[in-house]
Amino acid sequence: MKTRTRAAKPHRTESQLTKLQRENRELKALVQRQANKIDRLEKELAEEKAVRKRYQAQYYNLKETSTAEIGLLQVRVKELEDKLAGVMSTLAWHQKQAFGERSEKTPTADIVETKERKPRGKREGAPGYGRKSRDGLLTDENYLDVSEQDRTCRCCGKPYRKLPKGDRSEMIELVQELIKIVDIGVKYVKDCGCDEGSKKRFVSSAPPPRVFPRALLGPDLWADILTEKFLFQKPLTRISKKYGLLGAEVPVSTICSGMKKIAPLLFDLYEEIQMHAKGAEQWNMDETTWRVFSSDEQKHKNNWWLWVVTTSDCWVYLLDPSRSKKVPTEFFQGTSEGVLITDRYSAYKSLSGIQKAYCWAHVRRDFIKISEGVPELATWADSWVLDINELYRINNERVALLSGDRVAEVETSKLKLKLKISEIELKIEKGLREARAERQKKVLRSLKKHWQGLTIFVEQPNVPMDNNAAERALRHSVCGRKNYYGSGSEESGHFAAAIFTICQTWLCNQLDPISLLQDFLRRTAEKRGKPPPIEDFLHWKMNVERREQFKLKRTK
């Protein structure tokens, strides 16, 4: 038994060794596979790290680019929002101008908006204004009597006694008629055989007076045409139809050809008024579009500009195809002092030597546009409008006090005005620091830029705060532009500017333009087409008797 046991032990050891070797080989193969796998994973990890690094670099590059692009887009969005706000504000303004109330009146600082509005018109039981005399009209008195039968007693036949005072009533009537005047000349022939040298054998009566040779229309009719066209802004076709209804055919072509011959007669008067206006110390100036339908085929050249310069006693109109600084520069050439009140248009800023005063009404209009077009800024804009209203009120009080001998009150009012101006100036600086919207910054920057011109009226109370005088002077010409679109040629456009100047200058000096035009053309006709002395038609050279003769019958 022992011999058998000893022989079996080596066999078991060899078997275990073989098994262990196989397991060892398997383990080595497994380790190799794991090592290969680790190498592969490390390689993949390295590749992944490289890809990640590349993606990270792209990410950061894209992030920087996107941040820059986002910033640019945000700026662009802000610009577009500001532009949209401006467009909406302008649209709201134009909608108000077209369909709403045109008034820019707003409540002043001391007026409560919730206060009940007073009813329009006169109150019941209020005293009337009394009868108007109307002394300037021709008077035709008609005596109305009672029939003899009604003023006789039926019983005894005794007539009634007439009372010293009877009823008196007035009625205004219009007489419209055209008169055809036939001038019949006479000719004489010499029948004797006497020799009188150079004396003519045939003699004729002098030709009838005409404004220009062979004129079909008389001086008063020409005066009526000019006033209807350029004072009341009626188209020539309507004027022609009016005369047609009165029984006379006056073609538009006849009127146009006659105006070409009348125009040179009035240009000396027009130029003299221009020269007088240049010598003033203070002017208001503005401009508006005026169409000139010339033969030029280029449509854009039809858009001309009608400029107006107003002084205390003159209104001068200038027509020019340009809206550049050329027009004010040429008009004020040689003028080195004075004050010019305008809006903030750049063409006026080029003038040297003349003080430029700017219009507060335009500044106020900027804030009104923001209030009506940008609802989120309405409260801010309304506060500015109230400040400007208060500034107007204080200045109006000061100007009203200047007419009397109240020096202390004038100084007090001036001090109030300076305090209000200082308050507004501080508000501008504060607003520029705190403003967020571009619309706010834009209007405040403009206000600060033009501050010197906006405050000239403080030390010079005769300078108005706004340019309303020039804007009012353009109103009647704008009505003409809407009624007959403008002028048919360059010559007719300059003639329109001349007539506007002459008639409106007479009106602002309380002179009757119709009567003066009639007198001018009558005297021209008497002199066979030669104009009378222009001194008789210049208000600063008229004597007292002539001014009284041609003063307006009604001043309002």
What does this structure look like?
The protein has helices spanning 2-99, 219-230, 236-245, 252-278, 326-331, 346-349, 360-373, 378-402, 407-434, 438-449, 451-454, 456-459, 468-473, 475-484, 490-508, 513-526, 544-549, and strands at 187-189, 202-204, 282-292, 303-310, 315-320, 339-342, 355-358, 486-487. Helix content is 54%, strand content 7%. The chain is elongated and about 185 Å long. Among the domains are: 214-359 and 467-556, no CATH class; 360-462, no CATH class. The chain is α/β, with parallel strands linked by helices. Strands 3, 4, 5, 6, 7 and 8 form a 6-stranded mixed sheet that branches. It contains 17 helices and 8 strands. The relative contact order is 0.10.
Per-chain topology:
Layout lengths: L1 H98 L87 E3 L12 E3 L14 H12 L5 H10 L6 H27 L3 E11 L10 E8 L4 E6 L5 H6 L7 E4 L3 H4 L5 E4 L1 H14 L4 H25 L4 H28 L3 H12 L1 H4 L1 H4 L8 H6 L1 H10 L1 E2 L2 H19 L4 H14 L17 H6 L7
Parallel strand pairs: 3-6, 3-8, 6-7
Antiparallel strand pairs: 1-2, 3-4, 4-5
Helix pairs in contact: 1-7, 2-16, 4-15, 7-8, 8-9, 9-10
